[in-house]
Write a structure and sequence with these properties.
- This protein has 584 residues and is mostly beta strands.
- 0% of the residues lie in helices and 50% in strands.
Length: 584
């Protein structure tokens, strides 16, 4: 079952049940780096506690209402498997907050004996319009990344990373933004494998965008609150005595409704260039390609101008190649390391037929060079699985498809997995029903009988049709390498207009007699669709005044169809009828 929208009607006061979205914020990064050379954890939760803060929003509203929750409970799961365990009291590992927003403070290195920990906040909110309690959940995963045990280390690389390189915010045809949710980013600066952010001075400069700066050190995080242009940028500048200045740019784009827009983007043949200790590249060259797509049309090659640059410090780039004429792809061979010790290659795409400049810039990709340092006897390399979407993670207007692929790295080298399992996120799936112990609770295993149109689920790459993506959907891959299983998750998005379900009909009875007829109408972009009732399955449920589902209503506990009738005998004083829209 794939529920894509829900509508409701109170049979007393006409109130509709609200749609809630829950998130978990954190005071520390979720990747904990463990260095076996000395047994150090970065960050060290024992000295720098990680405070998890639940956040709750009503769909379409930017106000955090977590402080209005009736109750908040915390649970944890180890290594992405098994059942969740509730944290019922503070102890040496956790402190449960006592404020109106019940936080969870992690105050020990919980990853000392685990590779990952998943925390879940269960929030119960009483809808003021209906008096019903609504339960929603959010998950937050922390992962341990282990360095190999090495001899004498080489010179550490200095690299800055944004938690969010770019974000899209929904806007109407006039450019009015409905929500800035998710339009935030945090800069982290690494000295080798060590988070060195606290030793840098960070400043922000904005263009076409406004927001709030926060974090430690100051100005580390930017949260968008407004935009005066269709594309806004925030430039982070980090300085430290004795080090080169680092610059990173965060971009926020308005996604406007109305006429079909044409989007342009860059794609590269690999996500990283590997360099072995002999300074040999794999692959020896990289191919950049440009694409364009109008509305829900088929993507096609786009001939523009390429500017390719190299960096020896990971932040300052020097141009090495500029297109002499329009071209849709370019194969580039990086400068040999014996000539110039480069750390990254950057490609920028500009509009066709013009001289590249800031006014006609379209897209940018940075390809890091992953290198082994000059070391002594190398220890065991960490093995990591990375799930990514090589052709982008967005479908439009419920058409087309996206691909997700898993790469496995052993140290800096890509290796080949021997077995693959793919899962789709589903809160109703458990390890004993719909899923398995490898995927864990909340993940439904894709197979020959349950795949929702997804293909390739036993290989390293799956193709996901738009019909499987109601709005935002997450997929997990569990890959086997060397007899050990590794996993990672990616998220894909359907940016089509959402479905809105409105229940129409009379909602009152007289003297406990009679019936009412209710009809579910589905709207998209303000226009009614599925008037005939053939596009979706309509599943109706009935709840009493205490928000308890009537499991014997209509014998099975539910009714189906675009139009139904409710008898006065079904209602005791008041009730709420809910219609779920199923696109399975």
């Amino acid at each position: 079952m794939t529920i894509v929208a829900t509508g409701s009607m109170s049979l007393v006061d006409l109130s509709d049940a609200r749609q809630l979205q829950a998130f978990i914020g954190s005071s520390q990064q979720r990747q904990v780096i463990y260095n076996p050379n000395g047994g150090a954890y970065t960050p060290n939760y024992a000295s720098s506690n990680n405070v998890l803060t639940p956040q709750l929003f009503i769909a379409g509203n930017n106000t955090d209402i977590a402080s209005q929750a009736k109750s908040i409970k915390w649970f944890y799961q180890t290594n992405s498997s098994g059942n969740y365990t509730e944290i019922i009291a503070s102890d040496t590992t956790y402190t449960l907050g006592t404020g109106s927003v019940k936080t969870l403070t992690i105050k020990s290195n919980v990853l000392a004996s685990n590779n990952s920990m998943t925390y879940m906040a269960e929030i119960v909110y009483t809808d003021p319009g209906t008096g019903f309690d609504v339960t929603t959940k959010a998950e937050y995963e922390i992962v341990k990344v282990t360095n190999g045990s090495n001899g004498t280390n080489g010179t550490n690389a200095i690299m800055a990373v944004l938690s969010n390189e770019s974000a899209n915010v929904p806007a109407d045809a006039n450019g009015t933004v409905s929500s800035y949710g998710g339009a935030a980013t945090t800069i982290s600066i690494f000295n080798g494998a060590t988070d060195d952010t606290a030793n840098w001075t960070i400043t922000q400069s904005t263009s076409g965008i406004s927001g709030t700066a926060s974090g430690t050190p100051a100005n580390r995080t930017f949260t968008t609150t407004g935009m005066s242009a269709d594309v806004g940028t925030v430039t982070f500048t980090a300085t430290r005595s004795g080090y080169a200045t680092i610059t990173k740019i965060f971009t926020v784009n308005k996604t406007k409704g109305g006429a079909n827009a044409t989007s342009y983007w860059l794609s590269q043949s690999v996500s990283a260039i590997q360099m072995n200790i002999s300074k040999v590249y794999t692959p020896s060259s990289i191919t950049f390609s440009a694409f364009a797509q109008t509305g829900a049309g088929t993507p096609s090659a786009y001939a523009g101008k390429f500017v390719i640059a190299e960096s020896t410090d990971g932040s300052t780039f020097t141009d090495k190649y500029t297109s002499a004429s329009n071209e849709s792809s370019k194969t580039y061979t990086p400068t040999a390391q014996s000539t110039s010790a480069i750390k990254a290659v950057r490609v920028r795409l500009y509009q066709a037929g013009v001289t590249p400049s800031a006014t006609n810039f379209i897209d940018e990709q940075i390809i890091p060079i992953v290198a082994d340092g000059q070391t002594g006897q190398a220890g065991a390399d960490a093995v990591t699985a990375v799930v990514w979407t090589p052709e982008g993670n967005v479908v439009r207007n419920s058409t087309g498809s996206v691909k997700a692929t898993v790469d496995v790295y052993k140290g800096a080298n890509q290796v080949t997995g021997t077995a693959f399992k793919w899962y789709v996120q589903d809160s109703t799936a458990t390890t004993s029903s719909g899923g398995d112990s490898d995927g864990g609770n909340g993940w439904r295993l894709l197979n020959s009988t349950t795949n929702f149109g997804v293909t390739g689920y036993t290989t390293d790459t799956i193709t996901i049709p738009a019909s499987t993506i109601p709005s935002v959907e997450s997929f997990k891959c569990v890959v086997t390498y060397g007899g050990v299983k590794y996993s990672d998750v990616c998220t894909v998005v359907d940016v089509s207009d959402p479905y809105v379900v409105t229940v129409v009909g009379t909602n009152t009875f007289k003297n406990g007699q009679g019936t009412v007829t209710l009809t579910a109408k589905v709207f998209q972009a303000g226009v009614e669709i599925d008037a005939a009732g053939t596009m979706f399955s309509y599943i109706w449920s009935l709840y009493d005044a205490n928000n308890v589902k009537n499991t014997t209503w209509n014998t099975t506990g539910s009714k189906t169809g675009k139009t139904i009738t409710v008898a006065a005998a079904d209602i005791n004083a008041r009730g709420n009828v809910v219609c779920d829209l199923d696109k399975a």
